[in-house]
Write a structure and sequence with these properties.
Protein name: Transcriptional regulator with XRE-family HTH domain
Distance between the termini: 37 Å
Structural class: mainly alpha
GO molecular function: DNA binding
Number of strands: 0
InterPro entries: Cro/C1-type_HTH (IPR001387), Lambda_DNA-bd_dom_sf (IPR010982)
Radius of gyration: 14 Å
Organism: Roseospira goensis
Largest sheet: none
Number of helices: 6
Shape: globular
Order of helices and strands: HHHHHH
């Protein structure tokens, strides 16, 4: 179940875990602890960061920019990567139409 109360399919759960794993690897590659990241994000706890990285919840859209800044990434690059991991079909469909 997600925080909204919706049941996730096995595939959706796996995509959410993949997004969390990607974020964890980015954080670890920069040698930033969960506590340090939470401090940079200002409004979240270390437990929240752990839940996102474990794939229990997604990064809320309103935090993507701050998450990217804390990891030294461009906002659009992180949003693109998470979009492809969290929702590959809608994401690819949108960009295919936009490129046409």
């Amino acid at each position: 179940m997600t925080e909204e109360g919706f049941m996730l399919t096995g595939e959706a759960r796996a995509r959410q875990r993949a997004g969390g794993c990607h974020l964890r690897l980015l954080r670890e590659s920069r040698e930033i602890t969960r506590a340090e990241l939470a401090e940079h994000l200002l409004s979240v706890t270390e437990t929240f960061v752990a839940d996102v990285e474990a794939g229990h919840i997604r990064v809320p859209a309103e935090l993507t920019g701050r998450w990217a800044l804390a990891l030294g990434l461009r906002h659009d690059a992180l949003a693109d990567a998470l979009g492809r991991l969290y929702d590959p079909l809608p994401f690819d469909s949108y960009w295919t139409k936009a490129a046409a």
